[in-house]
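Convert to structure. Protein one:
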Amino acid sequence: MQSYAEILRTKVVVWTSVNEEPTPRENLDAAVFSARDPYAVRLRRVWECLCHPEYPAGMILWLGDACPILYTELTERLPDKIQRLWEARAPLDEFERVLDLWKEAHRTGCRIYRQHLVAEKRLKSGETRRTN
């Protein structure tokens, strides 16, 4: 069985590469988000914040090239830490702090990727005007 971190990592990369609207309830194993597990409840809450319709498709792949440190935080370091804390049944406040870091790293990635898209659009429209 895959670890929770591996499931999360796979879903984030797949969704951003195929431009699908994330559907965490349909796509993640039910065992991951068991309603009886307080760690699962907290992870589901954060996961649903990360997977919303305004999620900028392509962000994770772009971050891999443009911001490798943030990419590693989002796809490796923080999911692995979440996995370790969950398996160790760490104090819930410690688990939540790492979830909050993951959520903030995701927000930061979204923000800088959207800024990149706006700048790219302006650059393309400026190039179009100069050639006409």
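Protein two, convert as well:
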Amino acid sequence: MELKIEPFHKNSYEKAAVLIKSPSPQIWLRELSMMQLSLEKITVFALPGTIANRIYGCLVVLDPGTKIKDIRQNQWLQIVNDRLFIPAYSIATPILSDQEWQKFFENKKSVLHPEFGFFELTDAINWAELLEMPQPVKIEIQTPAKAVFIPSAIQSLRIERNEEELKASLENPFSEEEALQKLPFNLQKVLSGNQKEMDKFLKYLDKHPEAALAMAIPLDVMHASRGKKSGKYVFGNGGNSYSLGNSLPYIGLVIGVVIVLFIIGGLVSGEGKFPPAIFILVFFIIRALSSGDKPWFASNGNSNGKSGRTALLDNERFLTLQQKYRKLADDYVNEKQYQKAANIYLKLLKQPPLAAKILEDGKCYSEAAYVYKNYCKDNSNAALCFELAKNYAAAADLYKVLNEHEKTGDMLAKMGMKSKACDYYKMVANNYVERAQYVKAALIYRKKMADPEQAKKLLLQGWENNADAQNCLNNYFASYDDLTHLNYAIQHIYENKVDADNSEIFLQVLKHEFSKDQSLEFVVRNISYEIIADKMDQNPAIAAEISYFNRHDKRIVKDVMQFRFLSKRQK
């Protein structure tokens, strides 16, 4: 007769012993202590290994009524007919009668296990002979004097610049020496629209294009400063203006006056002739209109308390000046003078987004953030640049405006304000929970708030609510670093939180856990067998899952295939 054990979907006998797999007696004692077992209430037998003179582990036989809350990574053993210990979730075959048990075993106890075979339990360990209590040692505790704490590493770094400094560095990139140059033209006449001085100015820019930055003469890219006869070129901050288009109403008035004077002159002379004095008057009026200087009838507005003027600039010169500005900006970028290049796009070409991009590419993040915020009204990019500049306070303020609570919490955490950061993280997690996104909520608690226990509770809540249940439970088991605790968690979830509705999902989770470590295979395989057996009548196809837990057993794979074939034929 051959006595052997086979897997079974449940425990048919009483669990009466614990198997500790380790050759070290020190580990035996540690495990017994962790399981809160007293040496007086147990009997321990050493078990041989499959190699000569090697120890496999020990068998801990419990006294009747002894309970264990957590057996850790150790294994339960059942006792058959009060004589034979076999692993949990297994059965001994063939079934023996009482006479056969008495004949083969008498009153001796033995253990049968697939890893080390059959062993008769004869000599229990006498701990009193092996253990020697340590002698008490008198300990004197000395309290060290308080020392000055010297941090070994920088935990956080912040660089904050106020907006006045950023504004000054962007809008005034040149020193006074660069600005005060000897100019070969009259700047005031250029600003007033004198054409001769304008030509001198453009020739000067051919040789000294960077002077445009020093004088801060902007180019109106809205095309109001160019044209053949009615365009305007704006200098300074706007205000006074003069152009041919603006003079048309006055020319009409002069023509009307001339006609009236002609009629009056004819009536006075009686001959219908125009008096010479009238010709002289008309000559001076037309000269005043065509002069490049400011005419007596030109508007004299004032904007922001600063004077400004407009003058006519043809398309060709407009485009030439625009190209010079862009080339100058490119030259500054190549020289890594990003603030000067940005100033050209910001103040002369009136293109703030390009100015901000140049500053950002040049890693002038504080200046780029200032332009994004104040000129482009782009708080999103401004917040990102403030973050890159390590100005976390300014970044946090903008992320609050944008309602990006997670980023706000990140900035506060970098500033060492963990409590306030957690308030924003909770808002993010609660939002995820409301949308049944428990995995994302758990990640916030585990990674951002360093609260793994609350993360586990949320993942279990997702499993119980069947909200992405499989993903929730996979992440729940992944949060266990200790395989002993993971083994217990798998059994606990199966016994308390698995029912007929979610058992098949739990089976898929077990397939993922099965390959993690060899120490998990025994428990995971037995639970999987039990689930498959319960579902076999309703879903015969589930029998194919047995193959996953026995990949190297070709006989089982063949039996599963034959079972599925017969099931289909019966249908």
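Residues 165-242+292-350 form one domain. The first helix runs from residue 25 to 34.
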